[in-house]
From TrEMBL:
Pfam families: Fn3-like, Glyco_hydro_3, Glyco_hydro_3_C. InterPro entries: Cellulose_Degrad_GH3, Fn3-like, GH, Glyco_hydro_3_C, Glyco_hydro_3_C_sf, Glyco_hydro_3_N, Glyco_hydro_3_N_sf, Ig-like_fold. SUPFAM superfamilies: (Trans)glycosidases (SSF51445), Beta-D-glucan exohydrolase, C-terminal domain (SSF52279). GO terms for molecular function: beta-glucosidase activity. It comes from Actinomadura rudentiformis. GO terms for biological process: glucan catabolic process. The keyword Transmembrane does not apply. Catalyzes the hydrolysis of a non-reducing terminal alpha-L-arabinopyranosidic linkage in ginsenoside Rb2 (alpha-L-arabinopyranosyl-(1->6)-alpha-D-glucopyranosyl) to release alpha-D-glucopyranosyl (Rd). It is not able to hydrolyze alpha-L-arabinofuranosyl-(1->6)-alpha-D-glucopyranosyl (Rc). Keywords: Hydrolase. Belongs to the glycosyl hydrolase 3 family. Residues 678-747 form the Fibronectin type III-like domain. This is Exo-alpha-(1->6)-L-arabinopyranosidase.
Length: 785
């Protein structure tokens, strides 16, 4: 192969892109915008022009890591050696809860990750995922979500970091930073999705229209994306399926060119969601046919068309017929080539097979998964029974009844974009389409028919975790009780008998993750009720009626309406979908080996009819004829086996300029008898603004550990830019006036209050505005008196 200028790594990337683009035929250019999806397209047999990207090329193989890497090298060889110009292909996979391939670690769901309130831990997780990607030759992760979820009806809440833009931004930025910098000499691409407003769909229905004004669009939904772009350096973005005020994002130059690339400063790769470009014609009707849809998307700013078919030929037709200007195609192709040059794909298209381990789920990686789940567990309620809180369970020999549809079912603790769940669904549909296949009933796609159909890393169920921790001196009884979703009460009697014979009952109830089918929650699985599926509520009530002290463990993706449970069950905790080590982690919390400190990243409402309700509205008086806007368990809520006191709040200056830095400090003391973590939360409120300001917004948080009796001084520096509002004429504005602060253990549990006054003229922060506060924690003994 000739040594063209684009192969000279000493030249600038712009020079290399220009040289390569100038050598391409129209067909070769069109090929670089194609991103076929490996579950449907045979991506391991590329055409002579190759492809720009291949998604799910490795996960659908279902092979061990070393063989998977070998197939990745072979696919690269076909591009590098068998195409005229030797342009390598970009391999992309899902990675939100772990690299979605066989034998990789299955971490907790994103909503559980957010419940740790520890971005540093999520950054460590993303570094682990990135290292696994690099070993196999995967260079793009189709993760994380930077969507702000506020409607529990939406099935994809489990994939988000919750309802608060500040928390979402912190977690998404940590994920991006960790993944993209995981291996020093192998740059990777993290892909933020789904830009923009996807989570605000009408009625919580997936891909439905979004009704958002420009203020909320920027202040709530765009802010996490901008933070992950400017602070995290995100190299990839995926536009949303939805239309905002009748404008489909995937075909909008206003959103993808002017807002994303212009206002938010993004200069990376834009890959469409699966089949989203075609929906400009088939769903939205803004394009007359598939060629016009492709032209609209590329003109708007889409670079890669992720699809179940290959669109290259249609793009060639669109250019030759005048539907698409070649200059617009060149823009998209240049973006794809630039991304490949930036990550060094031309210099390092292959991986070292000898360096690929037998498993991507080592002891260290499993320990990290368990740590995240332990830190994510939220103790929602822990009332006394007989004068003593139900939890933690004592080590004394006892009989424990473990009951529930998710108690001993690996698929009941894994999230929808895990390898096990998604690829089992993929395999089920593939088998259903194969007349030679042998399945019990491949047409059944109900939640209770979800079975593990792929090889999996070990998954520790709740029953297994409790049995191992309880020890040989205790008796652990087990009954399923009922299915997840089917109305089958035939197991109730056995469950009640087990509970009646036990000293304590642990009920594990919740969801089955799925995508468009085979689940009770997940993409395309939205809800009108947000209730425990099937007859699980009846099972809980039957067990509670035995009088045996009962603990409910929620293994779920959807934020439930739990008023009835809070009134009748003494102890409730949630692990959300806790991943492969959920059973071990929850057992550690139940027995007190781990003091729970997870905090809710989204409120659990009193009535689903109140949704969507941002957390700060649940704190205000508001009621329907029947029902309330209140939260049963508010945003930021979580209990502990110890107690914490807040005191000695100090403000460095009660007045400061609008472009200043608010400095607060206070002391937190562990007043209990156990060591534990406290998640300090600082909320602010701009009392008067030219637009309506939210009653409370998170502006700082920090998870800190304290031994019994120990105290720490927490100093928080809050940039005034966190109180900037969006104005249609002036852009971002920080106005003079009073700012009120609420400090405590949740959005509703306020321990300290203060205020400051911003003075001077309006401050107009631009691209350099700060997105985060700085928190410093010092032991009280180290602080000068």
């Amino acid at each position: 192969m000739k040594q063209y200028a684009y192969r000279d790594s000493s030249l600038s990337i712009d020079e290399r892109v220009r040289d390569l683009l100038g050598r391409m035929t129209l067909e070769e250019k069109a090929a670089q915008t194609a991103a076929p999806f490996g579950a449907v397209v045979d991506v391991h047999t590329p055409p002579e022009t190759g492809w720009g990207c291949a998604a799910a090329a490795l996960s659908t193989l279902g092979l061990p890591p070393r063989e998977t890497a070998r197939r990745a090298n072979e696919l690269q060889r076909k591009h590098v050696e068998d195409t005229r110009l030797g342009v390598p292909v970009l391999l992309a996979e899902e990675a939100l809860v772990g690299l979605k391939v066989r034998d990789a670690t299955s971490f907790p769901a994103a909503i559980a990750q957010a419940a740790t309130w520890e971005p540093e831990l999520i950054e460590a997780m993303a570094r682990t995922i990135g290292a696994q990607m690099a070993r196999l030759g995967v260079r793009q992760a189709l993760s994380p979500l930077a969507d702000v979820a506020r409607d529990p009806r939406w099935g994809r809440v489990e994939e988000t970091y919750g309802e608060e833009p500040y928390l979402v931004g912190a977690m998404a930025t940590a994920f991006v930073r960790g993944l993209q910098n995981s291996v020093e000499d192998v740059p990777l691409i993290a892909t933020l999705k789904h830009f923009l407003g996807y989570s605000a769909s009408d009625g919580g229905r997936n891909t439905e229209p979004v009704q958002l004004g420009h203020n909320e669009l920027r202040e709530v939904h765009a802010t996490p994306f901008e933070r992950a772009i400017r602070e995290g350096g995100a190299r990839g973005v995926m536009p949303a399926y939805s239309a905002i005020d009748r404008v489909p994002v995937s075909g909008s130059k206003a959103y993808l060119a002017r807002l994303l690339r212009g206002e938010l400063g993004f200069d990376g790769l834009v890959i469409s969601d699966l089949a989203a470009v075609g929906q400009l014609h088939t769903k939205h009707g803004t394009a007359g046919d598939s060629r016009q849809a492709l032209a609209q998307a590329l003109r708007a700013g889409v670079d890669l068309d992720l699809d179940n078919t290959v669109s290259s030929d249609l793009i060639v037709e669109a250019v030759r017929s005048g539907v698409l200007a070649e200059a617009d195609l060149d823009r998209a192709v240049s973006s794809v080539l630039r991304a490949k040059f930036e990550i060094g794909l031309f210099e390092r298209p292959y991986v070292d097979l000898d360096a690929v381990p037998e498993t991507l789920d080592s002891t260290e990686e499993r320990e990290l998964a368990r740590t995240i789940t332990e830190k994510a567990v939220v103790l929602l309620k822990n009332d006394p029974v007989g004068g003593t809180p139900v939890l933690p369970l004592s080590d004394a020999p006892r009989t424990i009844a473990v009951i529930g549809p998710n108690a001993d079912r690996p698929m009941g603790q894994l999230s929808s974009y895990s390898y096990q769940v998604l690829d089992s669904i993929t395999k089920r549909f593939a088998l259903a389409a194969d007349p030679q296949a042998r399945m019990e009933d491949p047409s059944q796609t109900a939640p209770d028919d979800a079975h593990l159909l792929v090889d999996s890393v070990p998954v520790v169920t709740f029953l297994e975790g409790i049995r191992l921790r309880a020890g040989d001196d205790s008796t652990v009884l087990y009954e399923r009780g009922c299915p997840v979703a089917a109305e089958d009460r035939s197991g109730f009697a056995a469950a009640v008998k087990a509970a009646s014979a036990a000293d304590v009952a642990v009920l594990v109830v919740g969801d089955q993750a799925g995508i468009n089918s085979s689940g009770t929650v997940g993409e395309g699985l939205d809800s009108t009720e947000c209730a425990l599926p099937g007859v699980q509520r009846e099972l809980v009530e039957a067990v509670v009626a035995t009088g045996t002290p009962t603990v409910v463990v929620l293994s779920h993706g959807r934020p439930y309406v739990l008023g009835w449970m809070a009134q009748s069950v003494p102890a409730i905790l949630t692990s959300f979908f806790g991943g492969e080590e959920a059973g071990s982690a929850v057992a550690s919390v139940l027995f007190g080996d781990v003091n729970p400190a997870g905090r809710l990243p989204i409120a659990l409402l009193e009535s689903v009819g109140a949704a969507p309700v941002p957390y700060w509205r649940t704190l205000q008086p508001g009621a329907y004829v029947a029902g309330s806007t209140a939260a049963v368990f508010p945003f930021g809520h979580g209990l502990s086996y110890t107690s914490f006191e807040y005191r000695d709040l100090a403000v460095a200056s009660p007045q400061l300029p609008t472009d200043g830095l608010v400095r607060l400090s206070f002391t937190v003391t562990n007043t209990g008898e156990r060591a534990g973590d406290e998640v300090v939360q600082v909320y602010g409120h701009d009392a008067i603004g030219r637009t309506v300001r939210p009653e409370r917004t998170l502006v700082a948080f920090r998870r800190l550990r304290l031994e019994p009796g120990a105290a720490a001084r927490v100093a928080v520096e809050i940039p005034t830019s966190l109180f900037a509002l969006w104005d249609a004429e002036d852009g971002w504005v920080v106005e003079p006036g009073e700012i009120r602060f609420y400090i405590g253990a949740s959005s509703a549990d306020v321990r300290l209050r203060t205020s400051v006054t911003l003075t001077g003229a309006d401050y107009l922060p631009r691209v350099d505005r700060a997105f985060a506060s700085r928190t410093i924690v010092e032991d009280v003994d180290q602080v000068a008196p």
